[in-house]
Structures are given as C-alpha cells and as structure tokens.
Design brief:
The chain is of the alpha+beta class. The protein has 13 helices and 15 strands. The chain has an eight-stranded mixed beta sheet with strand order 7-8-9-10-6-2-1-12, with helices on both faces.
C-alpha cells in the first residue's frame, strides 16, 4: 500500500487527487489530507439545497462536489480527512467497517471509546465525529471519511443551514446529526497534525508492505489539470445537480415578492414572479429572459443588465431581486 503524503489544503485539488489516484494508480493507497473551509457535497445532491448561500458567499467558503454519494459535509483545517483506495472483486468492494476499523483502533490507543454506528458513521458517546462514503470505479473502491478533530462547530452549522421550503427535488438530502470533536475526548492534548501522524503511523505499522509516497511533478500536473477542467467548474459543482423546483419569498420596500423556478441541469427552464408589488412594465419580460439562463449569480446578473428593474417591480432594487433568486 502507498501511504501518500499530502500537504495541499485546496479542496478542488484534494478532490481531484482522489479521482486521479483511483483511476491511474494500480496499487492500494491511503491518504490523509485537510481542506481550508469548504462544503463538500455528495455526487447526487442538489448543491443549492444543501448550503447557506449567503453565509458561504460572505465567508468565501468553497463548494465542491465529490465522486461519492451521501450527504454534504463542512471541512476546515480542524477536520482531518482520510482516503483508502483498494482493488478487489466487485461484491467485496463496499465495506464501511473494514476501512473505518483503523481509525477506531487509533482512538482505542488514545483511550477513547468510539463505535461504528448506522450505515457509515463513527461516534463517541452517541455523537458523530466521522461520516464516510464510498465510490466504486471498475474493480476499485474509493472510501473516504471525515474526522472532526477541532473543527469550528459554529461554522459547520451555519454553512450547512438552509431553508427546507426553498427546494423541491429528488436529490439526496443530508441528515444533520449531533456531532463532536475528537479533541474534546482526549486525555492528553494533541494538535490535529499530531493526530494525523498517529493515524499514519498506525496504518503503516498494521499494513504489510506499506510505504510512503509523494506525488511526483507529473502527478501534480495531471491532478492540477483535472482540478481546473472539472473540480473548480460551476458545471460540476452546481450544474450537475438534478432537476429541482426553487421557491423563495422575500419582503421588500415594494411589497412581497415570491419567485419560483424550474431548473434542469443547472439551467432555468421556467421562471415566475408573484406577490403584491406594483409595476410599470410587465415582469413576464424578465421571466422570459431568465429562461435558458444558468441558475448562478454571474449569469443572472448579466441577463438582468438589460432591464431597469424598478420599472418592473416598483421600489424593488436589482440586489433585492437577485437575493430572491437564490
């Protein structure tokens, strides 16, 4: 097994690195890595329905879709992520207990009683500190999990806080859980990097043939291309979302404004405005203009440049209208 040393904290690069190793390496691999503040959404999720858009924008939190299914998670530098990539027969590939067992063994050495519970969680005293997901590619499986060590819980809660009434779709919804940091249960204080080193040491000592590996310049170049061509793009992170209906109501100086959108593959197929506002010109002009526009702020701002918004919604400004669309 290759134990790959990782120091990058760019979430776009780190998610690309997983796909690169999964599809290009033949040997089993293990990686430990951290991300700067980011929300990582499951492959089958509606991204906009999982995030607090205003909080994410204000705090410049990156949003990245991963290869595996499951729910959305918040990462920061107090969260340690682990990845196992292994080959095998298809019917033997998906095994959450097998790949989380080394983590439980490390915690047992630290005198922390942790357990595997439910489908894919690790808990301490019934509180979740690790969520896990898997993705199968041909005869290889990618298993990765989060390890809340000293994460900022307020940021975690705020970044993932959304209005459940805004979206109606068939995407997989995240289940919010009671969570805890590993650091709260330590008998002797450790930093997240010291904890990382303990996990790495345990995996290497308990795995015959394990050896350290660093990405070569060719590896880094290939991962960077995948990052730029896929993982940083709006099309992957947002446009890949399934069909959904969006609805939001805002109170403005011009009255109540309700927006409904039908969105397919990230593109608005139908837009409607309702409310008790007044108007000079018919808002249906804007409804028609939004048809075929990507449901992202840049594209919508560009489309709305052709309109004097207050002519269509008296006393409602451009920024208020844009707020209502997300």
């Amino acid at each position: 097994m290759l134990c790959i040393i990782r120091h990058e904290t760019d979430p776009y690069f780190n998610l690309a690195a997983e796909e690169y190793v999964l599809k290009n390496f033949e040997r089993d691999s293990f990686m430990l890595w951290r991300n700067e503040p980011a929300i990582i959404v499951g492959k089958h999720q509606n991204t906009l329905a999982e995030i607090n858009q205003d909080y994410v924008k204000e705090n410049m939190i990156k949003v990245v879709r991963r290869l595996s299914g499951g729910g959305a998670v918040f990462h920061d530098l107090g969260n340690l992520n682990f990845t196992f990539i292994a080959s095998g027969e298809n019917h033997q590939l998906v095994d959450f207990r097998k790949f989380t067992q080394p983590i439980l063994e490390v915690l047992q050495k630290l005198d922390i009683e942790a357990r595997f519970e439910g489908r894919n969680d690790l808990t301490i005293d019934g509180r979740k500190f690790s969520g896990n997901a898997e993705h199968v590619h041909k005869n290889r499986v990618l298993h990765h999990g989060t390890l809340l060590f000293s994460a900022q819980m307020a940021d975690l809660s705020s970044a993932l806080k959304v209005d459940p009434d805004k979206f109606q779709d068939k995407a997989v919804k995240s289940v919010r859980s009671r969570v805890t940091n590993i650091s709260e249960h330590l008998k002797i204080p450790l930093t997240v990097l010291e904890f990382r080193d303990l996990v790495l040491k345990h995996v290497m000592e308990s795995t015959p043939g394990a050896e350290l590996y660093s990405f070569t310049q060719d590896d880094i170049a290939a991962i960077s291309r995948l990052r730029d061509e896929k993982y940083i793009t709006w099309e992957w992170n947002f446009g890949y979302s399934p069909k959904y209906n969006f609805r939001k109501t805002v109170k403005t100086n011009g009255g109540k404004l309700e927006v409904t959108l039908e969105v397919v593959n990230g593109t608005i197929e139908k837009a409607r405005f309702f409310g008790d506002y007044f108007n000079k010109l018919d808002p249906s002009d804007i409804e028609h203009a939004l048809t075929g526009t990507l449901h992202n702020e840049t594209a919508i701002r560009e489309r709305l440049n052709d309109f004097e918004i207050t002519d269509y919604f008296l006393k409602i400004g451009r920024e208020e209208l844009i707020t209502a669309l997300f």
